[in-house]
Amino acid sequence: MMGALHRQCLWEHLTPRRPQALALGGEIKADVCVIGAGYTGLSAALHLLEAGRSVCVVEAHETGHGGSGRNVGLVNAGTWIRPDDAEATLGPEVGAKLNGLLGHAPAEVFALIARLGIDCQARRDGTLHMAHNAAGAADLRLREAQWLRRGARVELLTGARCAEYCGTDKVAAALLDHRAGTLNPMAYVCGLAEAVQRLGGRLFHHSPVVRLERQGDRWCVSTARGSVLAEKVVIASNAYTEGDWTQIRRHFFAGYYYQVASVPLQGEAAQRILPHAQGSWDTRTVLSSIRRDAEGRLVLGSLGNGEGKPDWFMRSWADRIQRHYFPSLGKLEWQFAWSGRIAFTPDHLMKLFEPAPGLLAVTGYNGRGVTTGTVVGKAFAEFLLHEDPEGLPLPFDGAKAVSLPGVRSALYEAGFSLYHAGQCLRVVL
Ligand SMILES: Cc1cc2nc3c(=O)[nH]c(=O)nc-3n(C[C@H](O)[C@H](O)[C@H](O)COP(=O)(O)OP(=O)(O)OC[C@H]3O[C@@H](n4cnc5c(N)ncnc54)[C@H](O)[C@@H]3O)c2cc1C
């Protein structure tokens, strides 16, 4: 008989040693106050500390509570959209700069992990974008051509090599991106937090910011029990922003993503699945992501909110995807299920803000935050140190709000749920 699914994030389970921190109490001073302990905030804090600034990080819950602790762990290169499309939207100069920066971002992340000695099961074996049909294969051919023109190490796998790398014959072609890789996302964000603490950064947990206001020549960041007076502030609360002290939530619409992980798998059939350890996702509009963890679990995911969905639904969706791609595994036992929130923007590109001098914010990584958060945090640190806008990945945004973000989120969620119900009922795949 099957037990209940653990409604816990797998990466939390695999990262039992997480940084400890007290709640903020009383009034403290720092050069920079960072709001949010995810990749963006902690990367900003780390690079500011390394440059000799005093920094405190104020987190509403605990390190990695947001997307950083619960994502798929794909260390992706580039934006979600094709590089030509990024240049068409942003203009050739800004677009080329962003493509260059994010194309190189996995190298930055793996170098940072090595430099700080973070044990997060990082593997730079690439990622596989898998075509589910002929239209998907055509999209991948375009992506390959566009990245090759930019000198990136990508290759389109077809035929026997594709089947061998993916571990399934259900994939027409797969784009192997040698720049990219995988990691345990919670262990990475915890490693960043530990490095911040080692360098003397003050990290506060369970301290939601409730007010942000100017007091003389400083910013005052207030929580229920304390406050930080700082010259500069980085708002890194992104999709998980809580409270009405910032307008950041007007600049993205929330979408959800759930994951289901099996028990650790052994045996020959299991070894044939993604045998070279790439993380992958398919070209469906409502995509499925597929990876293995370091203990051999199969981890599947898709767009949509799994919270509130019953175990039978999560299991039957996971069974359907597994049996389609990997029928030789037979019936699997599913162990963990969890969900997270993603900040989407209508053009699939992030937005940077400087609402006032010395106050920086960002949102809208569109599901690509492991690398983007790390490089944006570093770029914010450099901007605060040198005030040179050339170092930023993008110019600051004109702050046009997303129209009807709540309605968009609800419509997307309804669409994802319908699609998944169709998958479970074998009407679509
Ligand atoms: C399920 C899922 C799968 C994903 N898969 C991938 C992937 O495979 N690869 C990839 O690159 N990206 C992926 N992403 C996206 C990626 O996880 C995020 O873009 C990234 O983690 C964002 O990092 P961040 O530091 O900007 O924000 P977050 O990690 O969300 O951190 C924001 C922090 O701010 C805190 N906060 C909010 N409000 C307040 C307040 N008032 N006061 C104090 N603190 C506050 C939150 O508690 C949170 O800890 C995925 C996201 C999800 C949810």
Name the features.
alpha/beta, 24% strand, 12 helices, eight-stranded mixed sheet, 18 strands, 429 residues, binds flavin-adenine dinucleotide, single chain
What does this structure look like?
- The chain is an alpha/beta fold.
- Helices cover 34% and strands 24% of the residues.
- It contains 12 helices and 18 strands.
- It has helices spanning 10-13, 39-50, 67-70, 83-90, 92-116, 134-149, 159-166, 185-198, 268-271, 311-325, 369-386, 405-424, and strands at residues 26-35, 55-58, 74-75, 127-130, 154-158, 173-177, 181-182, 202-204, 211-215, 218-222, 226-235, 253-262, 279-282, 288-292, 298-303, 334-344, 351-356, 359-363.
- Strands 1, 2, 8, 9, 10, 11, 17 and 18 form an 8-stranded mixed beta sheet that branches. An 8-stranded mixed beta sheet has the order 5-6-4-13-14-15-12-16, sandwiched between helices. A two-stranded antiparallel ribbon has the order 3-7.
- A hairpin with a 2-residue loop joins strand 17 (351-356) and strand 18.
- Helix 5 packs across helix 11 (369-386).
- The longest helix has 25 residues, at 92-116.
- It is globular and about 65 Å long.
- Flavin-adenine dinucleotide (FAD) binds next to helix 2, helix 3, strand 16 and helix 11.
- The site of flavin-adenine dinucleotide has 42 residues, from helix 2, helix 3, strand 16 and helix 11.
At a glance:
By secondary structure, this protein is α/β, with parallel strands linked by helices.
